[in-house]
Amino acid sequence: MISIISTLYNSESTALSFVEQVLKTMNEIHEEEFELLLVSDGDATISSSLENKLISLDNRIKFIKLSRNFGQHIAIYCGLEKSIGDEIIILDSDLEENPQDISNFLKELRKNNFEIVIGLQDERNKDSFFGMLYWKAISWNRKTPANLCTIRAFTRKYANFILECKDESIILVDIDSHIGFRKGYLKVHKTYKGVSSYSMKKKLEFFLSSLILGNPKILIYASSVIAFLAFTFIVAASGITIFRLSAELDSGWASIIVSIFVSMSFNLISFGVIFFYLSRILNQVRARPRYVIDEIKSIKQND
To answer: What's the rounded Cα separation, in Å, for the pair 154 and 158?
Structure first.
């Protein structure tokens, strides 16, 4: 059984064509045991008549309508919870990702015994300069390629571990790096429709969530930098004190500078400690599984 999950948001112009192409692809590869879950993420452009038209195309289509816009990754998580397939495909419904690639992802997943195969763009063709820097930072921080797509195929085993992650802010690239397992990457050509459904506000929220909430190690790195700066100020204050004792300077100058440096050092140390504890708290409240078991083997003893 295959579960295909896609989210709808401002998808009035592409939803029907997307569903038709998915059905055509599944028919061509002779995969009859499947379900197509369409999760409407507060999509106000999808009318009741269009909903009914989509559902009437095939009895294997399930239309899930969320009460409001929760965000793409939350909507995907909802689709995962409602899916029943042993293999899961996730892809965008805006047709930037080609539904015909479903066949290639399933083949790659099965042929190499991967737990997940993730789409990899040949190039990111719609990123601004700052967008490029963002993806470079994300990929460096998580040791993943920078050109990841939404489209991916994975096993039910992998899906179950995603569902065990109870993050308030679901970020797939971060969860992928946490779960581990043997991953595969498949290059795809992703077209650009000319406009992003993400507003500047949403992009900023996603940036902050991905960079900090997605990986609390950033706060650990910040603590290290702060500790280094605090140490630098203390060394500078010590140097000024020694210099003041061995040279004639205007009275009061050295003591003012030293007191400022020492005060800044203590403030920085305090922020470093706060950042360190915040990273621990973030990890705790996400309630992710502490470890992920691939399999357990043993030699059975004969009586």
So the answer is: 6
- Residue pair 62/19 in contact by the 8 Å Cβ criterion: no
What residue has token string 């060394």?
Answer: 235
Tell me the CA end-to-end span of the chain in Å, nearest whole number.
39
C-alpha distances (whole Å) from 241 to each of 119, 168, 245 are 59, 50, 6
- Residue reference for tokens 């899961």: 88
Per-residue pLDDT, 139: 63
Radius of gyration of the chain (CA): 26
Task: Note the pLDDT tens digit of each residue in 47-59.
Answer: 999 999 999 999 9
Q: What is the pLDDT of residues 83-102, one digit of tens each?
A: 999 999 999 999 989 999 99
pTM of the model: 0.71
